[in-house]
Specification:
The structure is a homodimer. Chain A is an alpha/beta fold. Chain A has three domains: 170 residues, MoaB/Mog-like domain (Molybdenum Cofactor Biosythetic Enzyme, Chain A, 3-Layer(aba) Sandwich); 78 residues, Alpha-Beta Plaits; 153 residues, Alpha-Beta Complex (Maf protein). In chain A, 39% of the residues lie in helices and 25% in strands. Chain A is built from 14 helices and 17 strands. In chain A, strands 2-1-3-8-7-6 form a six-stranded mixed beta sheet, sandwiched between helices. In chain A, helix 3 packs across helix 4. The interface between A and B is large, with 77 and 77 residues.
Chain lengths: 415, 415
């Protein structure tokens, strides 16, 4: 089954707004075995809309349209679809009642022009819209099945998932479903992980295993096709098991879990309190930890010691360490973590000091050099890393390295 | 002049990747007076590509294609364009030399398959690609002018701006140019600002003035058309002046300047040192300030006092204030700012304490309530705000409110 996605609106064709519906629909359709071959976007212009609808009708079995169902003169989808199907528009009383009820809910009179949203090409089925005034339309026109949905994603998405998908499954014999499972890792480079997995990420293999990196977080996406989701899931299982075997502690979560959420949840679950002492990240680590609701149970707070003076005066780093080893040194990171833990009374304390750039680098201590420290009841560990020259990237990666030290510590139960 | 933008690639049509080239090109073309009526996206499939190119040729004067210029079998643009233009492909020696020189730069031999990137439909002009191996193509085919560029945005954008735009201007008499100017404000709501500006944001007015809000930052976008950029700029001028007169201190910058960058730059320029004491934002304010390179000159650091214990023990907030007024109170915000300034020795200190949610709210102190304090040599100011229930949004807005207090203080030169 060949599908085309059509997005309607001059705000899209003129580039004022980015269309994300097309991508979302194509990805959803792929999961139920429908291949999208074409996307079209068209301005709010009658002849241009007719051209796009007619051409889609001639080359696709399924045409998924978003937009153009509003109450204004710009909204042409109803009219264009009727013309292409060669039928008149007719009035649908239940839809008018629905539209009126929505205005009633907001205590506003329904403007006369909204009546047009209850007009449908003869032969249509009405797709109810629980979140707005624009109902959708399902209509066979020639050999193509047209499905028209509103352009507002909040309205369009549930209509597609709850009404259109079951209906497509019922009406057509669809291809194989596609299922993804993403395993997320931190602590080794992309090529290192690829090597650990042998032939797993080879092109053309089934299931397909893709590897991507984003600020040192490595994602392995396993994709399988099957007659149904359960079967596809089963095909993924042996590969997932192999990845867990090979990567072990490098793995911190699945699908859309971020490292800072995984760490925050582990801290809360184990009830281990933590504090932070940050230099070059300026508070980013604390901010990431406090992104997770409920973190106040275990995150106490800490210090941002951006200047050397504050490292000495607030955090008690010996002036001697700064003058002999510098602020970006193993000794300074260790003192920051150790003193932070003592002063806050937390179970763990983590420190970051580095050169984010663009200035401040030297041949011995280049831009991108970061030391990360972790103090527990038994010891103080320090790790160092050298990233690239990008300030934002170095800061994000430094915060992630610190989070990862905490994650590994919690795995070892040694706090 | 009617234009169509065509994006090529199965990763786009299948929804694996979001196409942003189409929007970017449409917005750029609008600025030089070219209306984009259609966008098409098509999979890496020969008949489908031929269909899209032929249909674009029939309905558009200018067809801007991105993608399909790589060295692999999937890359069909050269072949399809030749077929649609009814001409054979021919070899272009200078392009081969360019491709070879790029491989030489990376000390790698050129794979044989890259030779195909030096093939062009007869009659083409070659668009050089300073950032990659895929040259672009300019070719009249029938009544349509085809411009083919690589899909990688980093390569495509400079080719479009530096080669295609001047060439389009030279070849065609284009419509009026469109120029935007965005004035950015903080400290009043969208509707309040709209009211202050009277009829300025009315629909249909020329120049058009659009108003948008993003996490309490309000942007006013003035758009004008003119025969050339200078003329359009001049049309914008009186409106911009009016906006500055009416909004005064609410304005912090123009175009893509963020509030935290504006504040960081003002601190550096005036050489005013600052420290931070954060509770519910957990370090976000420090992180935002330290996003700007060179901030180490004025940002000293400070405290993240997420728990009440640390507010007392690290920052010296009297336990009495916490028991009588609570951590989310004017008194606590004032003590945090005052003590932070004293302990760090900064010129200014700014504090944040609030209830980010989703839990922790009470009828008197609901989720979304935030107090922001500012201590200077002469006084301590506190402001409070009640945002909605969204944790992320409350935290970002709280940090922005604190930054804005600093901005206004700097305007008054009273540090």
């Amino acid at each position: 089954m060949k599908a085309e996605v059509v997005s309607i609106g001059s705000e899209l064709s003129s580039g004022v707004r980015l269309d994300t519906n097309g991508q979302w629909l194509a990805a959803q359709l792929a999961q139920i075995g429908v291949d999208v071959i074409y996307h079209s976007t068209v301005a709010d212009d009658l002849p241009a809309n007719l051209d796009v609808f007619r051409h889609a009708q001639s080359r696709a079995d399924l045409v998924l349209v978003t937009g153009g169902l509003g109450p204004t003169k710009d909204d042409l989808t109803r009219e264009v679809l009727a013309e292409v199907a060669g039928v008149p528009l007719e009035f649908h009383e239940p839809s008018l009642q629905w539209i009126e009820s929505i205005f009633k809910m907001f205590n506003r009179p329904m403007p006369e022009r909204n009546r047009v949203q209850a007009m449908f090409p003869v032969g249509s089925e009405v797709i109810t819209n629980p979140n707005g005034t624009a109902p959708g339309i399902w209509l066979m026109a020639g050999n193509a099945c047209f499905v028209c949905l509103p352009g507002v994603p909040r309205e369009m998405k549930p209509m597609f998932t709850d009404w259109v998908v079951p209906r497509l499954r019922q009406e057509f014999s669809l291809g194989e479903v596609i299922v993804h499972r993403t395993i997320r890792c931190f602590g080794a480079g992309e090529s290192q992980i690829e090597e650990m997995l042998g032939d797993l990420t080879k092109r053309g293999r089934q299931p397909e295993v893709g590897i991507t990196a984003s600020e040192a977080t490595i994602s392995l996406r396993v994709t399988a096709k099957g007659a149904n989701p359960e079967q596809a899931q089963q095909l993924i299982e042996p590969d997932a098991r192999f990845i867990y075997e090979k990567l072990g502690e490098l793995i911190f979560g699945e699908d859309d879990v971020e490292l800072h959420h995984a760490v925050a949840k582990a801290l809360i679950k184990k009830n281990v309190t933590i504090s932070t002492a940050e230099s070059c990240t300026g508070g980013m680590l604390g901010q990431m930890l406090t992104d997770t609701p409920g973190i106040s149970q275990v995150y106490l707070g800490g210090y941002v010691t951006y200047s050397n003076d504050l490292k000495i005066n607030l955090l008690g780093v010996p002036a001697d360490i700064l003058s002999r080893h510098g602020a970006v040194s193993e000794e300074c990171a260790a003192a920051m973590a150790k003193n932070c833990r003592e002063r806050t009374g937390s179970d763990l304390a983590v420190s970051i000091t580095g050169i984010a750039g663009p200035d401040g680098g030297t041949p011995e201590k280049p831009v991108g050099l970061v030391y990360v420290g972790l103090a527990s009841s038994s010891e103080v560990k320090v790790r160092n890393f050298k990233w690239g020259n990008d300030r934002k990237s170095t800061r994000v990666r430094a915060a992630k390295m610190a989070l990862n030290l905490v994650r590994l510590q919690l795995l070892r139960q040694d706090c």
